[in-house]
Amino acid sequence: YAHWTKPARRQPPRGSDQTGGPHTMSENGTQERRPRHTGNGGARARPRGRRADPGDLDALRQLLSDPPYRRDLLIEYLHAIQDHDRCLRPSQLAALAELVGLSQTEVYEVATFYAHFDVVDEHEPAPPPLTLRVCDSLSCQIAGARQLLRDLNESSGDGVRVVRAPCMGRCQHAPTVAVGQFHVDHATTEKVAEAVACGSTAAVVPPYVDLDSYRQQGGYSTLSKCVSGTFSADFVMNTLNDAGLRGLGGAGFPPGRKWQLVRAEPGPRMMAVNADEGEPGTFKDRYHLENNPHTVLEGMLIACWAVDAEKVYFYLRDEYPAIRQLLSSEIAALRSAAIPMADRIELRRGAGAYICGEESAMIESIEGKRGLPRHRPPYVAQCGIHGHPTLVNNVETLYWIRDILEKGADWYAGHGRSGATGLRSYSVSGRVKEPGVKLAPAGISARELIEDHCGGMADGHGFRAYLPGGASGGILPASMADLPLEFGALEAHGCFVGSHALIVLGDQDDLREVALNLMHFFEDESCGQCTPCRVGTRKAATLMSAPNWDTGLLRELAQAMSSASICGLGQAAGNPLLSLLRYFPEELEA
Fold this sequence. Notes:
By secondary structure, this protein is α/β, with parallel strands linked by helices. The strands form four sheets. It has a five-stranded mixed sheet, with helices on both faces. The protein has helices at residues 54-63, 74-85, 90-100, 104-113, 138-141, 145-155, 189-198, 211-216, 221-228, 233-243, 255-263, 284-291, 293-307, 321-336, 359-366, 395-399, 401-407, 409-413, 446-453, 511-525, 531-544, 551-564, 568-572, 575-583, 586-589, and strands at 23-25, 31-33, 130-135, 160-165, 177-179, 182-184, 269-275, 309-316, 345-349, 390-394, 423-430, 436-441, 463-471, 476-477, 501-506. The chain is globular, with a radius of gyration of 27 Å. It has 25 helices and 15 strands. Helix 9 (221-228) packs parallel to helix 13, helix 10 runs antiparallel to helix 11 and helix 22 (551-564) packs across helix 24. The termini are far apart.
């Protein structure tokens, strides 16, 4: 640069020793890297941004578990802070970033991604001591949740915050309000006020079959046969294939085949249990975990053994605090009883994100990140948790493992109708007399479920329509209620059975409002990663709020979301809308 001849500039070129840039010239004319100016002649002593306060660091060290602090436990740390202080403040996020060894941006983006975290500015007051969450999912909406939300907003006093919330998995008890962690079912303003006045804010663990009772009934004997060599891994996987067991989280992929694919991958391998059933209308996993959790846990450990997983992550949605207490207690009991592989289980707590029901988004969350779905390939069976091959199974899928191995493939395959095999746990809600989880043969029809398992339609309501697969499964008219509720049977009609969540609608329900409720749900729950879903759901909800629908534009939006979205949320978000256009054109003329 001694021979630099270009005209002088206000900002010398990058590389000039006048710029403070990272390069300088040596005596032989080559560029050399030099440290940034830091005042001490060395590299930058600390990252840019807010500096962590020593007091905040000490407070977090006392609140959190012992070091080393792990990146994959970031969401657990955020829960610990919010449970203690009712909110998260930037100073705490800065201190947490320093403890975990992350940038402040990484911590902040996770804290602001999940709905159950409240990030509050330093000088703002914390949220009120009590939060009332009013479920506004479809089953709750048609049961009066909208008016209930307005009434609670008007009647609640100081120290109480009222917010609307997505599905809480209690659709058979609609409408539902969470008073802190206590659920008020068939909620009214009077019931909620009584719970608040009594201080009923803690989760209530229901009666269930604990470890001692389960073992007295022969529990974990099937796992013992696997571990002892009585059953080989090949025998177990082939039995599941012969039984015709399908994955019951929504996709229907045969678990026996999935286990074989993961087992064929080089170790180390991981496993994750998807207990994040956030699909509106779905509550079957909650039913099984609240009643007989060890049937699920034994199936999980058999799967862990079959694929030789080094760690099992049980990912549970945050809307199930009672189940979290229950599982924490029973997993500890498994370890105390020296049940094989019990020490490999880690219970993980979601934070209010429907998207984490998608397996790759769930894995991102398990790793302590935002729940953004991954692009495929590679698939999670090849590259999942921390880059290792990962087996992901749904709760109900694992629930059937023990019974199939004990009773044989023919026992399970012997159930079913219309060419389907096996048994299913159907979540039924809406306008029926007896909603709830119905154990019934695969391939049963909606009409049979309503008439034979639910006591018929609720008084004063005629059967008009139904959702065969929750919010994303589309809407079918009552005239098509004899179709089998099974994988592959409804796709030709623009619908699918998904997680087997049946929501029944009556002749007094406004189907335009039904479709709009579902689109608002997808709009709220979109992770925002891809434009078709992020913008499409919002634009569709806006168009559907108008008195007259632009059906051409709505079809175009639905097609764009279906074709170009990264994951199933955006791909299926237009199904209820398209079903309405296809089967209920009279609704658009009203």
